[in-house]
Design a protein that fits this description.
Oligomer: single chain
Helix content: 55-70%
Number of helices: 2
Length: 98
C-alpha cells in the first residue's frame, strides 16, 4: 500500500497578500523560500520601475524568475539529451548485432 505524503495548509505572503496553499509537509520550507524569492524579485522590479502597477511588477518578477530557471536548466537539459542520444545509439547498435 502506497503511503500518501502528509499534506498541510501553508500560509505564504506574496506582495503583502496572504495565500493559503496545500503542500506536502516536506515541501513547506521550499514553498516559503519560493515566496521569499518572489517577494525579493518584486521589490527589485518596483525599485527599478516604480511606475508599474503591483500586478505588472508581480508579472515581471515571475517572468524574471522563470527565465532564470530556464537558463539554469538549459545546460542540464542539453546534457540529458546528449546522454539519451548516446544510450539510444548503443541500444540500436546492440539490437542490430543480435
Amino acid at each position: 500500500m502506497l503511503k500518501q505524503p502528509l499534506v498541510v495548509e501553508q500560509k505564504v505572503v506574496i506582495a503583502g497578500r496572504e495565500y493559503w496553499l496545500r503542500c506536502p509537509l516536506q515541501e513547506q520550507a521550499g514553498l516559503q523560500e519560493a515566496a521569499r524569492q518572489l517577494n525579493c524579485k518584486i521589490a527589485q522590479v518596483r525599485q527599478g520601475a516604480g511606475h508599474l502597477s503591483m500586478e505588472q511588477s508581480i508579472v515581471l518578477a515571475a517572468l524574471n524568475l522563470s527565465q532564470q530557471l530556464v537558463t539554469q536548466q538549459s545546460p542540464q537539459l542539453e546534457e540529458c539529451q546528449q546522454r539519451l542520444a548516446k544510450l539510444t545509439a548503443l541500444i540500436e547498435k546492440d539490437s542490430a548485432e543480435q
